[in-house]
Amino acid sequence: MPAYLFQIELPPFSRELTDIIPSHRRAIDKLFAEGRVLSYSVSLSRNMIWCVLNTEDEQQAMEKVISMPLYPFFIDVSCTPLLFHNTLPSSLPGIVLN
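User: That's the sequence. What structure does it adopt?
Assistant: Structure tokens below.
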């Protein structure tokens, strides 16, 4: 399944934007659980988001971005199709045989 890197620019934080963050985080967590979001990063200055989406095509990826609760606040959205996306595997805790 293709992966798409999104670079999203945010405006300066406002009370209205801050109030939507909890529902946005729930939506992102759901996309992670579905295997649609592979990575999600926010800059320290809180003005940029980078996320990698795993979807059938670019249109479906854009539909996922549009459905995000913070979408009305996005200033600029760019999408780059990726050849591949590597990440470190999640480490599982060691098994204890007690």
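The mean pLDDT is 92.
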